[in-house]
Amino acid sequence: MGGFTDGHFTQAQTPARRIPISLFSSSGKDTRHLWRSQSASYYFGSPLKKTVCNACGRTHSGWYDKRLRRVRDLSCGDTRIYLEIEIRRVQCRHCGKVKRERLGFLADNPLYTKRFAWYVGRRCRASTVSDIARELNLDWHTVKELDKQYMAAQLERAGTPAPKAIGIDEISIRKGHTYRIVVSDLIRRRPIWFGGADRSEDSMRQFYDWLGEKKSKGIRLAVMDMWKPFRNATNERAPQAGILFDKFHIMAHLGDALDKVRKMEYARLQGKDRRYIKGQKYVLLSSHENLTLDGRRSLKTLLAANKRLNTAYLLKESFGQLWDYKSEAWARRFFENWKASLKWQRLKPYEKFAEMIERHWGGIAAYCKPENKVSLGFVEGLNNKIRVIQRRAYGLRDEEYLRLKILTSMLPML
User: Which residues does 263 contact at the CB level (< 8 Å), separation at least 6?
Assistant: First the structure.
């Protein structure tokens, strides 16, 4: 028992006591013991002779030397918890060097337990590395390495996928047209591969090399934009897969055509007639249901003042119906009627857009087949999530860290 002396609590000296536990053992046979010393610090003894090399995993009888080490564990409230454990080193005959023993409850950084590293990784999913380092009083690089170990464990648990439907897109990782390819499993709704040196055919082939020939033959559908290198590499490595062009990329091309019409009308008009068009780019390009009340009023005024923009806007809004058809014949009939409505409208950008759709019709009409009804918005949603990850970190220079962040963004927490 203790008492108060000069306003402070003092604890009477008690002999150390030994409590056998197996919680921290990497196997059921290796039972270590928790010691409670007079200073209330904790450490584990090492009574058994067999020691596992941390580098190669070979088991040895005996050890080279042993020493005490303080390891940080999960905190209890606002109090940090440290474990004082006895670490052995083994002179490994296979490695030819003296190595630390392998303990399953320690992280790759032996100054922290694995469950503490998992806690850091879970916190880093929603916060920045700097915030977690400040909160836990850790070095920035330490938090980053613990987070990388956590994400690597997530990927190991998820395993190598065998996708049936994939989504292919590229992202920019820095200025200067530096691209990387992201491939997603559209059925399980998670990214499965990030890599390549650019968005060329050789970079796309790296994905199929990683996936393997057997699993590549299991792909039945590949959703992508109309970038030719992606299509060529897929036809070469997975010829049985159907090609489906992403709706959102196609609608983005149509939005560009509408913006060109807006610019042409602004250049054609003079004086006060321009005031209806100036500053209305995003009102025209946004879907009508996404506009605010003020935006709808501005749009109504603009369309009433300019007949050509009114026609172009209505054509843009109606084109999205193409993906609602379940029959390719009816989809084709709708497109022919839409293309015929361009006659005498003097909308050159729309005519070029219609020619592009004509050239890529096979990859658009494939969505009419029932077996190809997959979520087309997942790839675009993943791109937005990646932008959030990059913006939250003010850019990630470590490409491996960015790769782990992207691949684990949809995985469950450990």
Answer: none
How many CB atoms are located within 10 Å of the residue 372 CB? 16
Q: What is the pLDDT of residue 187?
A: 92
For the CA atoms of the chain, what is the radius of gyration? 31
Res 10: pLDDT: 43
- Using alpha carbons, select from 171, 107, 177 the residue that is nearest to residue 143: 107
Average pLDDT of adjacent 10-residue blocks, the chain of 414 residues: 42 41 42 41 52 83 86 92 90 85 88 95 92 94 95 93 93 85 94 93 95 94 93 95 92 93 89 83 86 88 89 92 92 94 90 94 90 83 88 79 93 91
Spatial distance between the Cα atoms of 81 and 83, rounded to a whole number of angstroms: 7
d(Cα 308, Cα 24) in Å, to the nearest integer?
74
Phi, psi angles (nearest 5°) of residue 2: -120, 180
pTM of the model: 0.77
3-state per-residue secondary structure call for the chain? CEEEECCEEEECCCCCEEEEECCCCCCCCCCEEEEECCCCCEEECCCCCEEEECCCCCEEECCCEEEEEEEEEEEECCEEEEEEEEEEEEECCCCCCEEEECCCCECCCCCEEHHHHHHHHHHHCCCCHHHHHHHHCCCHHHHHHHHHHHHHHHHHHHCCCCCCEEEEEEEEEECCCEEEEEEEECCCCEEEEEECCCCCHHHHHHHHHHHCHHHHCCCCEEEECCCHHHHHHHHHHCCCCEEEECHHHHHHHHHHHHHHHHHHHHHHCCHHHHHHCCCCHHHHHCCHHHCCHHHHHHHHHHHHHCHHHHHHHHHHHHHHHHHHCCCHHHHHHHHHHHHHCCCCCCCHHHHHHHHHHHHCHHHHHHHHCHHHCCCCHHHHHHHHHHHHHHHHCCCCCCHHHHHHHHHCCCCCCC
Q: What are phi and psi of 239, to 5 degrees?
A: -65, -20
> Within a 13 Å sphere around the CA of 264, how many CA atoms are in the beta-carbon half?
14
- Pick left, alpha or beta for residue 40 (phi over 0 → left; psi -120 to 50 → alpha; otherwise beta): left
In the prediction, which pLDDT does 173 show?
86
